Amino acid sequence: MQGKIYLVATPIGNLEDITLRAIRILKEVDIIVAEDTRQTLKLLNHFEISKQMISYHRHSSEEKKKEIIEKVKEGKNIALVSDAGTPVISDPGEEIVQTALEKQIEVIPIPGPCALIAALITSGIDAKEFLFLGFLPLNKKIRKEKLNIIKDSKQTTILYEAPHKLTQTLEDLQEITNSRKIVLAREITKIHEEYITGTAKELVEKIKEPKGEFVIVIEKNNEQEENIFENMSLDEHYKYYENLRI
Questions:
Q1: Is residue 219 helix, strand or coil?
Q2: Which CATH number covers residue 98?
Q3: Which of 13, 33, 68, 105 is deepest in the core (most CB within 10 A)?
Q4: How far apart (Å, rounded) are the C-alpha atoms in residues 186 and 211?
């Protein structure tokens, strides 16, 4: 009988955020596949878990992925974790999951901390609909395409960003977001947790030496809606809201 793959969410900072189920699964599986085994070892040591680990990161070979899948087919149960938070999201573990599903291997989520959700719910920005774009690409053409999506988006947009790239990203956002509200969530659940609000221009001026990992929450583009209402007559306003009720 082949094994299973468990996608185990781990703390993004505060170790108390791990779930009881996550601890149990990490203790019960045969192997833990980690993005950085050194980082995961700190977590395992804290909870007194000793387990075989295999590293799998964005530079791992196709052979490494095949090795992991083969172990599951042989009957080994595997826990897949990222350095922090929920695996697969902006994480190389996605490739393992895709291959596992192609091989009809059972993949089971063990929910827990997720930085993008934590940032969204504390931002005060509309959380009914949102678009997650992960890290903006470095390729100029693709980056411009992503920025245009943010510019026109009628949904809240969420990005991840590293400290050494934050200033450039804010400057790029300054060109497309105008007065839209942006919240920077920094070091979520850690000692220096911080939420900084402003326009892109204001944030460039506030953040002189970025430190820690950032989540960027960007207010949706409201310009078109505002223009529609500005040009409506009272009767048109009435019909507009009547149509919403249908």
A1: coil
A2: 3.40.1010.10
A3: 33
A4: 8
Give the tokens for residue 107. Answer: 């993949």
CATH of the domain at 133: 3.30.950.10
Q: What is the DSSP string of 66-125?
A: HHHHHHHHTT--EEEE-SSBSTTTTSTHHHHHHHHHHTT--EEEE----HHHHHHHHH-S
Q: Are 100 and 109 in contact (CB under 8 A)?
A: no
The pairing of beta strand 107-110 with beta strand 78-81: unpaired
Query: What residue numbers bound the domain in which 126 lies?
Result: 116-224
pLDDT higher than 90, residue 240: no
Looking at the DSSP bridge assignments, the partners of residue 85 are 10
Alpha carbons 79 and 110: distance in angstroms, whole number: 9
Residues 98 and 96: their CA atoms lie apart, in Å, by 6
Q: Are residues 208 and 125 in the same domain?
A: yes
Q: Which pLDDT tens digit goes with each residue over 134-163? A: 999 999 999 999 999 999 999 999 999 999
Model-level pTM?
0.86
- Considering its fold, how many domains does the chain have in total? 2
pLDDT above 90 for 76: yes
C-alpha neighbours within 13 Å on the C-beta side of residue 116: 18
What is the sign, positive or negative, of the torsion defined by CA atoms of 118, 54, 48, 40? negative
